[in-house]
Each structure stands twice: as structure tokens, then as C-alpha cells.
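Quick one: C-alpha cells for this chain, please?
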Amino acid sequence: MSSPALLLLGLAVTVSARSASAASTAGPADHLGAAGGPVLAPCSTAAAAGRILGATLAGYAAGLAVITVALGAVPVAVVVGVAVLAGFLARP
């Protein structure tokens, strides 16, 4: 759901369709969340599953905040790296 917003933000800040599309497709895509799913799957049966889900969603939100602040201020490769790491915390 955050991909269109990141695309528009990236286009407004960097004025480059290439940079904007790289930042928007790197992290919050479903395929990255699906890749992180097997890693986090055992956590869903844990006694503290709600806290684990809350922590992953907070990490995803923090990743989106870092992307928002860093876009245009740091190289696009760094933003894409943060987006990929945040994408692993996204729940498909």
C-alpha cells in the first residue's frame, strides 16, 4: 500500500523517475514480505505473537520514515537498501 506514496514522494524529491521507481519498488513489495514470512512464521505461534507482530510493524513504519527523510539527502542506493530491509518486515 505504501508503494504509490513512495513513488510520488521520490518523484517530487529527486525529480528522477528512475530513482523514484527504485525506491518505491525495492521494499514494500509483496515478494519481500513473502520472503520474510518463513523467517517470522515460527514467531506467530509464540506466546508473545502480538508483541512480535507489533515490533515488526513498528520496524516497517520506522523503515518508511527513514526512507521519507533520506530520499534526496543520501544516495539512492542507501535508500534502496533501507527499503529492502523494511520490506522484509512487511506482512503480505
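Residues 49-70 form the longest helix (22 residues).
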